[in-house]
Specification:
alpha/beta
Length: about 400
C-alpha cells in the first residue's frame, strides 16, 4: 500500500551526471480532484474516442512530461481507497515538487471556472472544457509561452497540449532557428490566460473570463518563469489578448517585437517579448482582406513571417543562453531574418504558407514585385488591422 504522503523518494542505482535518479511517489489527491484537473474523460461522447480509465489518462499526461523533461522513466498510477498516487521512476527526487505545484495551481483554475459558472446564465459555454497545461516539461524548461486558450481538439482528439496548428507552426519556426525538433517541447511550456479548451473560433466568447482566473494565471507565471535552479526564463507573449493582459497585470507594454521586463516574484525580473499569435499569419496573408489583391497579401504575409522568425530566434537564443542580453539578442535576430537572410524568410513564407515547392518559392522570391517587398521588411507595411483575438 502506498503511504499517504505528498511524496517519498527511493534512490535508484543509476546516476546521470550530477542528477541522482529516483522512484518518486506523488499523492495526486482524491478521484474527484484528479477527474477535475485532468478533464476526465477527455474525449467521450457516448462512445469514447480513447476508452481510457482515469488512471490511464493521468499516466498518459505524466509520461509526456517525463519524456519532455528528457527522462526515460516509467509512470504508474494506482489507487489507495479514494486517493490516487503516481509512481514515477527514473527522475530526480525533486520531481514531485513541480508536479504538486501544477496540481495546486489547477485547483485555482477549477475554482475560477466554478465562479465563472455561477456568475450568470451562459457564462460557461456548453462546449468548453477546463484544460490545464498537462504534459509540459515540468523541470527542464527553456522558455515560457503565454497564449490565449488551447483549441478543443488538443484535448478531445490529440490528448496532447502541444498538438495544434498553433504550437506545430511555432515549433517549426524554432527549428529554423537551430533548435532540434526533439528539443522544441522544452521551449514550449505554455500558460494560457484562459485555461479552457474551446473551439478555435471562441476568442470573442472568452473575452470576459480572464479575471476569474487571475489567481491561477499569476501563480503559474510565478512558478514557470523560474527554472529548477531558480533562474528566470525568457517569456514570449503571443497575440493581442495576451499582450493586453501583460499590460493590465504587470503594467508592461509589449507590442510585436517589443521587449519588457516584469517581476512575477519579489526580486525577480523576467524578459518578455511581444509576438504575433502563431496563427495570425493566415489572417494577414489572406487576400480577401485586400479586396483580392494577392500582391498586397503576400507583402503583409512576408512582413509577419519576418516578425515571427525574429521572435522565435529571440526565444531560441535566450532559451539556450538565459544570461544573454535580451535587446542585443533581438537586434541580432531582426537583422538576420529581416535584412541579412530576408530571401530565406521569403522562401519559408512561400513554402510554409503558400505551399509552393522550394524551386517555385525561389523563383517567386526573385521576382521584382517580391524583391521590392523584401526591401521593406523592417518598415511598417499596409496590413489588415490585427485580428482582435490574435
Amino acid at each position: 500500500m502506498l503511504k499517504a504522503a505528498v511524496w517519498t523518494a527511493t534512490l535508484a542505482t543509476l546516476t546521470f551526471g550530477a542528477t541522482v535518479q529516483a522512484d518518486v511517489n506523488v499523492k495526486m489527491g482524491s478521484a474527484e480532484r484528479v477527474t477535475q484537473l485532468f478533464a476526465y474523460p477527455n474525449n467521450c461522447n457516448v462512445i469514447c474516442y480513447r476508452n481510457w480509465t482515469l488512471e490511464q489518462t493521468v499516466e498518459h499526461y505524466l509520461t509526456q512530461s517525463v519524456q519532455r523533461d528528457g527522462y526515460t522513466g516509467k509512470v504508474s498510477v494506482n489507487r489507495d481507497g479514494d486517493e490516487l498516487y503516481a509512481q514515477i521512476s527514473g527522475v530526480p527526487d525533486s520531481y514531485a515538487k513541480p508536479l504538486t505545484q501544477l496540481l495546486d495551481a489547477g485547483d485555482l483554475a477549477y475554482s475560477g471556472a466554478q465562479k465563472l459558472l455561477a456568475s450568470g446564465p451562459d457564462k460557461w459555454q456548453y462546449n468548453w472544457y477546463l484544460f490545464l497545461p498537462l504534459g509540459m516539461a515540468l523541470e527542464n524548461r527553456k522558455s515560457v509561452e503565454l497564449l490565449h486558450f488551447p483549441p478543443d481538439y488538443s484535448l478531445t482528439q490529440a490528448q496532447d497540449y502541444l498538438r495544434s496548428s498553433t504550437t506545430d507552426r511555432w515549433a517549426q519556426l524554432l527549428t529554423y532557428n537551430g533548435i532540434p525538433t526533439a528539443q522544441t517541447p522544452g521551449y514550449q511550456t505554455i500558460i494560457d490566460i484562459a485555461p479552457i479548451a474551446a473551439p478555435a473560433s471562441a476568442g470573442s466568447s472568452l473575452e470576459g473570463v480572464y479575471g476569474y482566473f487571475q489567481d491561477y494565471q499569476t501563480t503559474m507565471v510565478k512558478q514557470l518563469s523560474l527554472n529548477a535552479s531558480g533562474a528566470s526564463l525568457p517569456m514570449v507573449a503571443f497575440g493581442a489578448p495576451v499582450r493586453n493582459w501583460i499590460k493590465q497585470q504587470y503594467s508592461a507594454s509589449v507590442p510585436v517585437l517589443g521587449l519588457a521586463t516584469i517581476s512575477p516574484n519579489a526580486g525577480q525580473t523576467v524578459s518578455v517579448l511581444g509576438s504575433n499569435h502563431p496563427s495570425y499569419i493566415w489572417y494577414a496573408a489572406d487576400k480577401s482582406n485586400y479586396g483580392g489583391d494577392e500582391a498586397k497579401a503576400d507583402a503583409a504575409g512576408l512582413a509577419v513571417m519576418g516578425q515571427d522568425l525574429s521572435a522565435a530566434c529571440w526565444q531560441a537564443g535566450m532559451g539556450e543562453k538565459p544570461g544573454a542580453d535580451p535587446k542585443a539578442t533581438l537586434s541580432s535576430c531582426t537583422q538576420n531574418w529581416q535584412v541579412t537572410n530576408k530571401t530565406k524568410t521569403c522562401v519559408l513564407f512561400y513554402t510554409d504558407v503558400r505551399k509552393l515547392s522550394p524551386a517555385d518559392a525561389d523563383a517567386k522570391c526573385a521576382t521584382s514585385t517580391v524583391s521590392r517587398s523584401l526591401k521593406q521588411l523592417q518598415k511598417p507595411l499596409t496590413v489588415p488591422a490585427v485580428h482582435p483575438y490574435m
